[in-house]
Specification:
90% of the residues lie in helices and 0% in strands. By secondary structure, the chain is mostly helical. The mean pLDDT is 87.
């Protein structure tokens, strides 16, 4: 039983899995933040372009 506990304590396979899960969650969060930023910037650019074109062509 003591041998099992010592080997279980030294085993790092679970720790590597936790590291990958945390790393993946961080990448997903950063991608979501980048998407939100790009989306709002693209919307603003589209609106400004529409306004400019409407002012240039007052048909």
């Amino acid at each position: 039983m003591i041998k099992f506990i010592k080997s279980f304590r030294k085993d790092e396979d679970g720790a590597v899995t936790v590291d990958w899960v945390v790393l993946t969650a961080a990448v997903v969060a950063l991608a979501g933040a980048a998407y939100t930023s790009i989306e709002s910037g693209a919307s603003t650019l589209s609106e400004n372009t529409e306004t400019f074109i409407e002012n240039e062509n007052p048909n």
